[in-house]
Amino acid sequence: MSGRQLLSTRDLIAQGKLIINDGYRAKNIELGSNGIPFIRVGNLLNDGFQFEDADRFPVENLSRVGIKISQPGDVVLTTKGTVGRFAFIREDTQRFVYSPQISFWRVIDKQTLEPRFLYYWMQGREFQIQCSQVKGQTDMADYVSLLEQRQMQITLPPLPTQRRIAEILGRLDDKIEVNRRINRTLEAMAQALFQHHFVEFGPYQAELVESEAGLIPRGWEVTPLGAHIKVAKGLSYKGQWLAREGMPLHNLNSIYEGGGYKYEGIKFYVGEYQERHTVKPGDLIVANTEQGFDYLLIGCPAIVPKRFGEMGLFTHHIYKVELLPDSPLTTHYMYFWVKNPQLRQAVTAFTNGTTVNMLSRDGLQIPLMVIPPSEIVQSFDRVASNVTRQIEHNEDENRKLAEIRDYLLPRLLSGEIEA
Fold first, then answer.
1. In sequence order, what E strands does 13-156 have?
2. What fold, for 221-371?
3. Strand, helix or coil at 163?
4. Contact 122, 74 (CB under 8 A)
5. Confidence label for 140 from pLDDT (cuts 50, 70 and 90)
6. What are phi and psi for residue 153, nearest 5 degrees?
7. What's the pTM?
8. What is the pLDDT of residues 356-399, one digit of tens each?
9. Contact in structure between 187 and 387 (CB atoms under 8 Å)
10. What is the mean pLDDT of residues 1-26?
11. CATH of region 5-154
12. Under DSSP, is residue 9 helix (H, G, I), strand (E, B) or coil?
């Protein structure tokens, strides 16, 4: 690739072309439940930002944080603990305050450096080598200091080439983001449908009668959860048997906070196991362990996807929930029941522990559940099943698009493939 320049971030900063900074060191007293999100490492995921459980920084105090508020075009890097997660701030990304464990690189002179090219360059070999050379450790956590980031070298092709590389890779990422948004919308619509029918009883308001669970539609029943399901605990595994290939091992990191399957959390296992430790696509799993007492993950459900084959394993940190043969309920009905925030409170009430919180089986057996007639459940299940199939299809398409992007990225950056 002709016309490339080797520049230092220090010079770019000195010339006013680039800002590299970290986040605001907020005191706990400054944070609350109102304001704009205060984003930490845990809120930056491989598929973007997770704002739902973030602390909030009061809008009236934003003058304290100065430039440490996200702007479109910022390139974001996690620099402590989990080093090397990246994000690009899009025009429609919700505004937030950066925490100290996150650095942001902000391009000032876009006639020298294309912001989205910078985002892809950070994922390339040149940046990764420099990160590994300067990575330190404190309190058993990896980190890359602000000083080191401000002394790195960056190879820049001509601006038109930067823009073409950013456009080629960006189109793939844009399609991935579209699919993610469709999936979030589909999930939210199914959850809203469940809420309307089975929590608020919207279509049945004229026929509500008293029951031990409060007002319910006439002809519906109230029974304990345990009358419809069997709850099994998974494999207590040893780390020495984890491998790059083997039996898929669905684990605590396979479930998103709030519910839903997290594909990037899969592990693989080559040790011994028993039949009771197996799951198949379509099975319901529920997190039974959480560090701390915020109830962000514990009691949250996911449905095992088809991607990992006909059989897998699940760990002791999650439960497998199986419907009994004579139950009128379905897996999707149970999934949205457990995922519903109002109903999940009945489950998480059965947690205990000191530093690690544990959900007992009682949490999935004792709470009362309103049971609709079978035909109503089946009608909802047809919609929810179609939603799950479309979500899995979009996830598989995203995986293929990501493979194409990851193949092209180093070759475009090196000039092996001319943009």
1. 18-22, 36-39, 44-45, 48-49, 55-57, 75-78, 80-81, 86-88, 97-98, 102-107, 136-138, 141-143, 153-156
2. Adenine-n6-DNA-methyltransferase TaqI; Chain A, domain 2 (3.90.220)
3. helix
4. no
5. very low
6. -110, 140
7. 0.87
8. 899 999 999 999 999 999 999 999 999 999 999 999 999 999 99
9. yes
10. 92
11. 3.90.220.20
12. helix
